[in-house]
Design the sequence.
């Protein structure tokens, strides 16, 4: 497959479309995480469809003091990776193609969800992100658009924008791709020195610790649900020596701290240790949130949640997250 490089929306609109168009939006500096998105898009579009990869470093997403000028621009390498991964088109517009009148006066506002976590750390970031996503959705006219779950808050906001503003496009989230040591793939990983990378592993380490604590709790809850609180059952268990195990399962599953509090504590311990390393990890936030609005969940929460972390190591800021699902003590998994 030969991937075509296009610079204008007019060139893209002139292409003949026979199947579904799937779009993967990027800021370039493509890596295996992007390749996974492109391969997934290829599978969704099918042999008769079309996969378009956008490469555009959006100035609206960079706040004062952030790395717009430093952000890597590697279009030749991006073209090669896109082609290897199954893209039909790389759409790499200039800034004046996306913003022909200069910075837009009318923009998408992310609302309250956009002011939390990443929005609090990077004011205006999500307004800029949603504005360019809306622009690129109009310019590329896809049937489906794919985004990585590593940027969980971004994905949630895009889904909300598409729903609230009636965009006729399907949004697909693709699981985070990690390097062999567990670090989530990011274009910013290249900025890390060897020592900084060792410290940065605390982000995924903290998430995995929280995930493991959650899995243990859910396993104990499942074990406790298997033991009805009836005298006849207790006597039967006692006869075969299982009553203590059942009681322990029930006690641990319902112990305090448990649930979300225990997950946060397990993750926090890893991050606290990383803050004492050389170089240290400077934590921005650790949050366990409801993905519908990115507010912190309470200890009685049930349903899907996201454990998210952001931190700086040296001059590099990194984010990561894992999805979790909390069941109630009396509910089935």
Sequence:
């Amino acid at each position: 497959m030969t991937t075509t490089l296009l610079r204008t929306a007019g060139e893209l609109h002139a292409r003949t479309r026979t199947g579904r168009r799937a779009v993967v939006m990027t800021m370039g500096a493509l890596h295996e995480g992007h390749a996974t998105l492109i391969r997934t898009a290829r599978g969704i579009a099918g042999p008769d469809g079309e996969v378009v990869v956008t490469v555009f470093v959006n100035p609206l997403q960079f706040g004062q003091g952030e790395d717009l000028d430093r952000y890597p621009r590697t279009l030749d390498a991006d073209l090669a990776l896109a082609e290897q991964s199954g893209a039909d088109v790389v759409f790499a517009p200039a800034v004046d193609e996306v913003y022909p009148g200069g910075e837009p006066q009318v923009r998408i506002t992310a609302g309250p969800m956009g002011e939390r976590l990443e929005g609090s750390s990077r004011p205006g970031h999500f307004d800029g992100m949603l504005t360019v996503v809306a622009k690129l959705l109009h310019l590329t006219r896809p049937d489906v658009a794919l985004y990585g779950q590593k940027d969980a808050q971004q994905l949630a906001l895009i889904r909300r924008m598409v729903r609230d503003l009636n965009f006729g496009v399907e949004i697909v989230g693709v699981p985070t791709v990690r390097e062999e040591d567990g670090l989530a793939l990011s274009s910013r990983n290249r900025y890390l020195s060897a020592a900084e990378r060792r410290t940065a592993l605390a982000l995924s380490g903290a998430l995995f610790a929280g995930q493991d604590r959650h899995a243990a709790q859910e396993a104990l809850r499942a074990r406790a649900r298997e033991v009805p609180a009836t005298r006849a059952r207790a006597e039967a268990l006692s006869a075969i020596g299982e009553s203590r195990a059942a009681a322990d399962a029930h006690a641990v599953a319902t112990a305090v701290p448990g649930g979300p509090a225990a997950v946060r504590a397990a993750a926090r311990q890893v991050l606290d240790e990383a803050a004492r390393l050389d170089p240290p990890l400077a934590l921005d936030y650790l949050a366990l949130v409801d993905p519908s609005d990115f507010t912190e969940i309470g200890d009685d929460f049930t349903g899907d949640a996201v454990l998210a972390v952001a931190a700086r190591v040296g001059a590099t800021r990194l984010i990561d997250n894992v999805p979790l699902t909390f069941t109630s003590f009396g509910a089935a998994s």
Notes: The beta strands are 4-6, 21-26, 50-55, 89-91, 144-148, 170-174, 281-290, 295-296, 303-313, 316-326. Confidence is low (pLDDT under 50) at residues 252-257. Residues 54 and 71 are 16 Å apart (CA to CA). The chain is about 40% helix and 20% strand.
